[in-house]
Design brief:
Layout lengths: L4 E2 L12 E2 H7 L2 H4 L3 H17 L5 H19 L12 H13 L2 H4 L6 H37 L4 E6 L2 E7 H26 L1 E2 L15 H7 L4 E2 L3 H6 L2 H28 L6 E2 L18 H24 L14 H21 L4 E2 L1 H9 L5 H10 L4 H18 L8 H5 L10 H4 L1 H7 L8 H22 L1
Parallel strand pairs: 5-6
Antiparallel strand pairs: 1-2, 3-4, 7-8
Helix pairs in contact: 3-4, 3-7, 3-9, 4-5, 7-8, 7-13, 7-20, 8-11, 8-20, 11-12, 11-13, 12-13, 15-16
Length: about 475
């Protein structure tokens, strides 16, 4: 036998030739799937309890397995567990150690299951915990965003289309637009959790098992809503992982849009906000620099997460039923997506409430660019002028403002009346920034009272579901 070969495999009875050492390393997953050790132990405990309930294991054997898995859990938590690539994956590492600890009874644990349904169960348990942790961080970001918005219901800034000054809005209104994106993300995440919360345990390799198992017992013990319906689909389904990565790609897309605005707003050209120093870095050569590294890095990580989504879609697109070794490639993209999402949310949840708006700079920017031009057109319509005629009148007034360097609110009444005799003294009520905000006093509008009410509704939604999940 070659020194590059090894015959000690838990599944080695069928084979007459040992696995090449390179192939052994190439096909092993324990270097990354060991992070599911806790979920693997949880699933094994539930499976063992069910086997005892149906008479496959004795009470004494169940106790031995429970004690052995408890010892393994302790060893892993303390960093004393010896992981082995030769044992391929987290499942066989734990099973082998269990057999070392309790003898032949350890070999009985795998009765009525396969690594196929075992890994399908583990990954659902792992992702369910990750979703709950991400949900908490997402809610924390929302509450921080809503809180800052409530403080700035009256703070005026320019709203943009095409990155050109369009109309005045409240800074709080802009922040609540961010929250609406996050609220949809939260809903998608909960949809994903609901669909993944079915137990594949008991599907075995692909066709179920001849043992008298009771899948509803293991499903309930593991907190699943119910067992999956079809054994073939149970072991081969990775829709839940793809759906989670789809959620993550949309979330990171939203965080990237927010990041882009933060990067712009912190620049000298905008000067709308200041980020605390702890979220920024300096330059090795330019001493004046304060770089918004956190939003820039979150913006960059969006491509990474989008790539993981495409990776999983491509992984599954040509697989016949049921399980294939390809599926081992699902974990690294999924694990990295979980880590990236948690890190980005933590960074934003810490950073957003600490944003310091420069109210005067935003107000001055809103005053430039004729941001109340639409208000003047609406004013003329209310005076009886058709909108297209009003649009032309205001366009001529803006052209005059460009030539003279005057904003609409800075022009005299006589100058404005030169464009339309329908203009009266009351026009200045709509040409001010505050007047423009106050005029949009409807649901979803940017009037300060509406912004305050919207912030309160948003806060109540997030706090109510946090209380329900407590």
């Amino acid at each position: 036998m070659s020194k590059d070969q090894d015959t000690s495999k838990l599944w080695g009875g069928r084979f007459t030739e040992a696995t090449d050492s390179f192939v052994q390393r190439f096909t092993a997953s324990v270097t990354f799937d060991q992070r599911m050790a806790e979920e693997d132990i949880e699933g094994s405990l539930a499976h063992a309890a069910m086997l005892c309930e149906v008479g496959v294991l004795s009470r004494d054997e169940l106790t031995q397995i429970q004690d052995g898995l408890g010892q393994i859990r302790k060893e892993i938590a303390e960093g004393n567990f010896a992981w082995s690539v030769e044992l391929e994956d987290v499942h066989m590492n734990i099973e082998s150690r269990l057999t070392q600890l309790i003898g032949i009874t350890g070999k009985k644990l795998h009765t009525g299951r396969s690594r196929n349904d075992q890994v399908a169960t583990d990954i659902r348990l792992y992702l369910r915990k990750a979703i709950d942790a991400i949900s908490a961080e997402l809610s924390r970001l929302q509450l921080g965003t809503i809180g800052l918005a409530a403080q700035h219901a009256h703070t005026v800034m320019p709203g943009f289309t095409h990155l050109q000054t369009a109309q005045p809005v409240a800074f709080g209104h802009h922040l609540l637009a961010w929250n609406e994106m996050l609220e949809r993300d939260y809903g998608r995440l909960q949809d994903c959790r609901a669909r993944l919360n079915q137990s594949p345990l008991g599907a075995a390799a692909l066709a179920g098992t001849t043992y008298p198992i009771r899948r509803e017992l293991t499903a309930a013990a593991l907190g699943f809503d119910k067992p999956t319906e079809n054994s073939l689909d149970s072991v081969s389904d990775r829709d839940f992982a793809i759906e989670f990565c789809s959620f993550a790609a949309l979330l990171l897309t939203h965080l990237s849009r927010m990041s882009e605005e933060l990067v712009l707003w912190t620049s000298a050209q905008f000067n709308f906000i200041e980020l605390p120093d702890r979220f920024c870095t300096g330059s090795s050569i330019m001493p004046q620099k304060k770089n918004p590294d956190v939003p820039e890095l979150v913006r960059g990580k969006t491509g990474r997460v989008n790539g993981h989504l495409i990776s999983l879609l491509t992984l599954m697109k040509s697989q016949p039923l049921a399980y294939n070794k390809d599926n081992q490639e699902d974990k690294e993209p999924l694990f990295d997506t979980v880590d990236t999402v948690l890190d980005c949310l933590r960074a934003f949840a810490d950073m957003v409430p600490a944003i310091r708006p420069r109210a005067e700079a935003m107000r001055e920017a809103a005053r430039r660019g004729f941001s109340t031009a639409t208000d003047l057109a609406d004013y003329l319509v209310r005076k009886g002028l058709p909108f297209r005629d009003a649009h032309e009148v205001v366009g001529k007034a803006v052209a005059h403002g460009v030539a003279s360097g005057l904003d609409l609110a800075e022009m005299s009444l006589d100058t404005l009346r030169g464009f339309s005799s329908d203009i009266s003294e009351d026009v200045f009520d709509v040409l001010t920034l505050e007047g423009s905000l106050a005029a949009r006093d409807h649901l979803g509008g940017t009037a300060p009272a509406q912004v305050s009410a919207a912030a309160e509704r948003a806060r109540a939604r997030v706090e109510a579901r946090a209380a329900a999940n407590a």
